[in-house]
Amino acid sequence: MRLLIVEDDPDLNRQLVAALSDAGYAVDTAFDGEEGHFLGDTEPYDAVILDLGLPQRDGISVLENWRRDNRKMPVLILTARDRWSDKVAGIDAGADDYVAKPFHMEEILARVRALLRRSSGHAKNEMEVGPLRLDTKTSRVTVSGAPVKLTSHEYRLLAYLMHHRGRVVSRTELVEHLYDQDFDRDSNTIEVFVGRLRKKIPADLIETVRGLGYCLGNSPDEA
Ligand code: CA
Questions:
Q1: Using an 8 Å Cβ cutoff, are 117 and 111 in contact?
Q2: Best CA proximity match to 213, nearest among 178, 168, 175, 174
Q3: Which homologous superfamily does the CATH classification assign to the domain defined by 2-119?
Q4: Residue 127 CA, distance from chain mean position
């Protein structure tokens, strides 16, 4: 899952990037409204964290513009604690949720998990396909109850496929959603990671659909 953080406070921006990277997300970052708008308009993010008070262009106008251009990614806005009117304006502009500053990082992580869960149509943090189970809250993966140790890239790949289980996901889509913009992207590495993943989980769970991509689990109802 790939996220965009638009926050002009350098310390807060850094803390958000650190916490969300640690939680297993690919993270891109912007420090002003122009740059944030551009990235959100051109890159396929799974969710965006958007501060409202930004230099060059305020968060509300950025958000309105994305929605006008039919950009549908879930957006979590950051508002000042005592500005209830900001929350209303933000939600009316197309925000999916808000967190008031100052906040606990755990709250951001929980709200991001909820947004990702909802946008991919899942009710719970725990997802199952056959004997495979992934908990997005703890980043724990088990097969028939036994823990599986994955690298961060393997986890990201599996989490994306689990969120989109039962659907064929192309290699291009995986590259776009697993790596941040600074990563040296090469769709061949996806094949390598799928190969490694298949050695750690029952290999037949990830199906290669020739010419199209990969599919985890063959029916969304399976879990
Ligand atoms: Ca700000």
A1: no
A2: 168
A3: Response regulator (3.40.50.2300)
A4: 16
Q: Token pair for residue 3?
A: 């996220």
Q: Is the pLDDT confidence value at 3 over 70?
A: yes
Question: Would the pLDDT of 220 be above 70?
Answer: no
Which tens digits make up the pLDDT trace of 175-202?
A: 999 998 887 777 678 999 999 999 999 9
The alpha carbon dihedral of 146, 151, 155, 158 has a sign of: negative
DSSP string spanning 179-211?
A: S-TTS---HHHHHHHHHHHHHHS-GGGEEEETT
Note the CATH number of domain 126-216: 1.10.10.10
| Ligand 1 center to 52 CA (angstroms) | 6
| Separation of CA 8 and ligand 1 centre (Å) | 5
Whether the pLDDT of residue 15 is over 50: the answer is yes
Using CA atoms, how far residue 15 sits from 7, 42, 47, 49, 199, in Å, is: 11, 25, 17, 13, 34
Q: Tell me whether the CATH fold assigned to 2-119 matches the one assigned to 126-216.
A: no
User: Ligand 1 centroid to 165 CA: how many Å?
Assistant: 37
How remote is the CA of residue 93 from the centroid of ligand 1, in Å?
18
Both tokens of 70, joined, read 């039919």
**What are the domain boundaries of the chain?**
2-119, 126-216
Calculate what percentage of the chain has a pLDDT beyond 90: 85
What pTM does this model have?
Answer: 0.90
